[in-house]
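Consider the following assembly input.
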Amino acid sequence: MQTNLIPLYQERPEGVVAEKILRSCVHCGFCNATCPSYQVLGNELDGPRGRIYLIKQMLEGGEVSEKTRLHLDRCLTCQSCESTCPSGVDYHRLLNVGRQLLEEKLPRRGLPRFKRKALAWFLTSPRLFGLLLSLGRIFQPILPSALKSAIPSRADVKIGPLDRTVGAGLSPRVVFLHEGCVQDAISPEINLATRAVFSALSIDVQTLAGGCCGAIEFHLDEQAVARSRMRENIDRWHALISQQPSAFIVSNASGCGAFLKDYASILADDADYLIKASELVKRVKDPVELIDGDELAALLSSTALVKSGHKVAYQSPCSLQHGQKLSGAVEGLLTQAGVDISVLRDAHLCCGSAGTYSILQSGISQELKQRKLASISDVNARHVVTANIGCQTHLNSDSGLGVKHWLVLVAEMITMTRSES
Ligand code: SF4
Ligand code: SF4
């Protein structure tokens, strides 16, 4: 695609990045076919090609308006279009630039601005979030129905401390667990299960100090705040991994993992941090990348679920399949371990969670959720698992489906077998 950026943007690093990406797009429109917002709304401007065009217009000096913002806001940042694009267009990076420059040209005001600031603050304050969630759960029976359904229930899971079982002959492997910000308040069993399963696989888990990865603020118009949080994290974590050259940072929330793996790209114009960020990114892993299929199979072979052959439906988070490019990884690992995994129809499409999208764009989000619930219902599985707290909470609200993280299911399977023997 030809471009003609105005001098202001030609001189800025963001403009240089955006121009390169714009030129890689051939405007073929293949991406629209796999874009969830385009599938729901059917408007060219609510698909990737239309949004790319809107950003191009802005960078070429065209007028921007609330209509521009509306179409950019409706993007779920699911990166499904990137998986489809034959030209390798780095769409989400372009969108990041587009949203940042739009905010500079036409700052959000009034209630929408306040709402985003409040969300960014609340969701990155784990203690406050945890306190309000506990109060919400206590008073849930008397709350209005809209609020009642927004409060995630406490999962009823049984996970025992799991001793080293397999891989004990290998030299110790160490991971630093990124525990996230609000995940521990909503579903503490996910970090518990990660520790238990890794322990059974003879992988030592240590806690990674520090909280939020910065994704929440970054996607709520607070890119400068997010960047400063990222730099703090890099300073803290780079020193740690430098001392332990074979250790990895593991994130069991694929949304956080995808953002952590994007650190070097986001800080590409920061000469002081780019090298450290690139080194850090190489060490960030999703749990599925660190678990050996044969070792997991040895752990699960005698479990009741494997022996029974009951189906498990897997909801693949966009942040894992499109963001981290790990499409098929969890399904493959669990299948290798003997679990009967059912892949969902339209598995490439977002469930509508997408961070705070479910709050800020609830209409589209709910439509996508209903579509996902229908595809889950089609496979008639005994359990439904995912790899991201956002998808889990979104799909569980109102549905009573009991979606859990796949590591929680694995930990439960092993715990049950051991308690029976
Ligand atoms: S982003 Fe890729 S798929 Fe979409 S219009 Fe551009 S080149 Fe085609
Ligand atoms: S990131 Fe997702 S919602 Fe946004 S344009 Fe791409 S496919 Fe559509």
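Residues 173-289 form one domain. Ask yourself how this observation constrains the way the partners meet.
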